[in-house]
Amino acid sequence: MASLSLKNVCKVYPNGFEAVKDFNLEVEDKEFIIFVGPSGCGKSTTLRMIAGLEEISSGELIIDGKVMNDVEPKDRDIAMVFQNYALYPHMTVFDNMAFGLKLRKVPKDEIKAKVEEAARILDLEKLLDRKPKALSGGQRQRVAMGRAIVRNPKVFLMDEPLSNLDAKLRVQMRSEISSLHNRLGATIIYVTHDQTEAMTLGTRIVVLKDGVIMQVDSPQKLYNQPNNLFVAGFIGSPQMNFIDAQCVVEGAKAFLKFDKYQVELPEAKAKKLIDGGYAGKNVVFGIRPEDIYDSAEHLDKFATCKIDSDVTGYELLGAEVLLYFTVAGANMSARVDSDTPARYGDHIELAFDPHKIHVFDKETELTIT
Ligand code: ATP
C-alpha cells in the first residue's frame, strides 16, 4: 500500500517567492499521477517537497497515514528518477543499479537477484557489464528506472524523465513506462510540461498554473470538461479555438454573437447561460479543431453553425489536415479529413458541431458550459 496525501502544502522560497500555493491532493495506491503545466508553475518544487529535497513551508505530506514533513529523504521509501538520469559514469550498469542497495548493506546475493529481476523487466540483461557511455539514451533511461525499481519503493517520483530523448524514443519509452506501471503495480508521480505525455500516461492529471492547482481529473474529463479557460487551452494539440463573443438571449433561446455570426446554442447549454444571468454579457466561445468540419455533409448537417474564412495555413499530418484561418480576429485551426480540397489562400466554409461548443466566463475564465 502506498497512499499519499498533500494537505494545504505551500512553498515559499527564501527570497519570498511563493512557488506552490495551498496544494491539496490525495493519491491512491497504484495511481499514475501526472503534474503538468507551463514552465515555472511549481511542478518540480512539489515533487522535490515529496522527495524531501525541498522543505515544505507549511502544510502536511502524509504517506500511508504518517506525516513525513521532517523525515529524511532516504527514509521516505521513495525513489526519484531525474531528467538527466544521474548515472555514475565509471560504474557498470549492474553497479549503477546495485549502488543504493550496497549503501544499505543489503546482502550480496539479494542485490544480485534484485538487479537481475529489474534488468529482466527492463530488458537490460545483456547490458549489465556496460558503462553508461556505451549505452543509448533510451537504455540509460532504463538503467535510471532500474535503479529505482530495485529499491522496491512505496512511491516512484519522475521528473521529466523523457525530456532528453529524441521524439521517436520518447514515444517508445512512454509506452514502456506505461506497461512498467501496470507490471509493478506501483504508485507513480510524474512531472512533465508535455500535455501529450500527460494525456497518454496518467490515470489522473494535476494541471498547475502559477503554483495553483487548476484541475485534477482523468485525461478524458480534462479534455472534455475543462474547469476553465486555462485548462481548455493547455490540454489538446492544436489547442482549443477561442473567440470573444456576446451572449444574446431571446426567450428560452441563447445565441453566441461574434463578428457577423449569431450561433444558436443547444437547449441544455442555452439554459446554463440563461440561468447564469449571461444575457448581454461577454463570454468566450471555445471549439476544438476536430469539432470543425469542411465536408459538404457536415456543412449541411450543421447548417446553423457555419463560418467562412481564408485558409492561411495548410498542414498535412498524414490521415488528417490542419487548416489555419482567422475568424473575428482570432487565429483558429480545424482538423479535417486529408482529402479536403482546401488549400492555402482559398476562401472556405466551415461548420462546427453545436453540442461541442464550450463557453467560458470572460471575466473569471471559468467554464459555463
Ligand atoms: P519547469 O517546467 O521549467 O521545470 P516547474 O514547473 O518545475 O518548471 P519549479 O522548478 O517548481 O517549476 O519552479 C517554480 C517557481 O519557483 C519558478 O518560478 C522558479 O523560478 C521558482 N524557484 C525555483 N527554485 C527557486 C529558489 N531556490 N528560489 C527562488 N525561486 C525558486
Question: Which key terms come to mind for this protein?
Answer:
five-stranded antiparallel β-sheet; 10 helices; 2 domains; binds adenosine-5'-triphosphate; alpha+beta; OB fold (Dihydrolipoamide Acetyltransferase, E2P); single chain; Rossmann fold; 27% helix; 369 residues
3D architecture notes:
It is a single chain. This protein is of the alpha+beta class and 369 residues long. The protein folds into 2 domains: 231 residues, 3-Layer(aba) Sandwich (Rossmann fold); 121 residues, OB fold (Dihydrolipoamide Acetyltransferase, E2P), CATH 2.40.50. The chain has 10 helices and 21 strands. A hairpin with a 2-residue loop joins strand 18 and strand 19. Helix 2 packs across helix 3 and helix 2 runs parallel beside helix 4. The site of adenosine-5'-triphosphate has 13 residues, from helix 1. Adenosine-5'-triphosphate binds next to helix 1.
Describe, in short, the structure shown.
With 369 residues, this protein is an alpha+beta fold. It contains ten helices and 21 strands. The protein has helices at residues 43-51, 93-103, 108-121, 137-149, 167-184, 195-201, 219-224, 229-234, 267-275, 296-301, and strands spanning 4-12, 18-27, 32-36, 58-63, 66-67, 78-81, 155-159, 187-192, 204-209, 212-217, 241-250, 253-258, 261-264, 282-287, 292-293, 306-310, 313-316, 320-327, 330-337, 347-352, 358-361.
